[in-house]
Amino acid sequence: MEKVIITAAVTGGIHTPSMSPHLPITPQQIVDDAVGAWQAGAAIVHIHARDPETGKPSSDPALFGEIVSQIKTRSDLVVCITTGGGLGQTTEERVAAVKTYSPELASLNAGSLNFALFHALDSYKTFQHDWENAYLKMTEDYIFPNTFKTLREFSQYFSEEDTKPEFEVYDVGMINNLAFLIDKGQVKKPVYIQFVMGILGGIQATLNNLQFLYNTAKEAIGDFQWSVCAAGKHQFKMCTAALLMGGNARVGLEDNLFLDKGVKAKSSAEQVEKIVRIARELGIEPAVPAEARQRLHLKGLDKVRF
Q: What is the pLDDT of residue 1?
């Protein structure tokens, strides 16, 4: 089997500071977590930024710049900048860091969905910051917008920067969206897909659904590179299934705050270490960043603007 590409998504825009004391908030904490994940075996790090005072997801390009430049100084990681951002951000805010820093890789969400986090309020009653409760509560009536117009615009921005899109597929209909973009010449093959499973509003994290997503993409698109991430308790089960199917895996505190049942992960590196151990038990070695760049046809670290 080919070496597996491990991605670490270190902070995201889903969890709030009150959910875990280990969630990286400041640029330095995010950088340290990213570098730790690299040392544990990650080849790619997926980056969001947060307000260092409140922990609220931020689209501030200056924060992204501080994070990605330090990561580059301390590692040879492939940096994947988010365009998902934080819930409620505008299209312009979401793409600003890509246009500013021209990364090798960036996320591109392949369709709209009811991106729901409000059910977390059943488990968390008290918060460190005023914004957290409202941020989670508003998602009961929130649609994460990724229209065909914005997909076309994002794709154009990516093409101008020679930034490869990592297509985030939350449900099977988004594969049809991606096939349409390819057919219209707005997206070039080969494509890289991240199957995102277990978000309330998206596809459930089951083995049957993962096989369904893979088969549907194979029929609609042909050959493609792919990875899996899954929310919460589904993380390691679905990532292990991806390894067995010949795919790649994403772990990290963006997707899951725990290492085992009832045991909070102290870092994304702990989760990387665990999925690397599982991979090696299956006879699969983790790819280093140079191997990930070659596999995904990335432009190279010397061509970014950070």
A: 62
Determine the Cα–Cα distance for residues 69 and 105; give it in Å rounded to an integer.
15
Looking from the CA of 73 toward its CB, the CA atoms found within 13 Å total 10
Domain ranges of the chain: 6-113+145-303
Instruction: Return the number of other C-beta atoms located less than 10 Å from residue 208's C-beta.
Output: 8
Asked if 101 contacts 306 with a C-beta cutoff of 8 angstroms, the reply is yes
Averaged in consecutive runs of 10 residues, what is the pLDDT profile of the chain (306 residues)?
Answer: 93 97 98 98 98 96 98 98 87 93 98 97 95 97 96 96 98 98 97 98 98 98 97 98 98 98 97 98 97 98 98
Do β-strands 263-264 and 258-260 pair in parallel, antiparallel, or remain unpaired?
antiparallel
Distance, in Å, from the CA atom of 157 to the CA atom of 128, rounded to the nearest integer, reads 37
**What six digits make up the tokens of 166?**
């990592």
**CA pair distance 216, 169, nearest whole angstrom:** 12
Strand partners, 45: 8, 79
In the structure encoding, which two tokens stand for residue 227, read together? 């990875």
- Please state, in angstroms and rounded to a whole number, the distance separating the CA atoms of residues 305 and 161: 10
Q: Which CATH superfamily is domain 6-113+145-303 in?
A: Aldolase class I (3.20.20.70)
Return the closest-CA partner of residue 23 out of 270, 273, 266, 271: 266
Kindly report the number of other CB atoms within 10 A of residue 181's CB atom.
Answer: 22
Which value, in Å, is the radius of gyration of the alpha carbons in the chain? 18
**Parallel, antiparallel, or unpaired for β 263-264 and 78-81?**
unpaired
Q: How far is residue 234's CA from residue 228's CA, in Å, rounded to a whole number? A: 11
Dig out the tokens for 209 from the structure. 């659904």
User: Which of these, 45, 44, 36, 154, lies nearest to 96 by C-alpha position?
Assistant: 154
For residues 112 and 84, the answer to whether their CB atoms sit within 8 Å is no
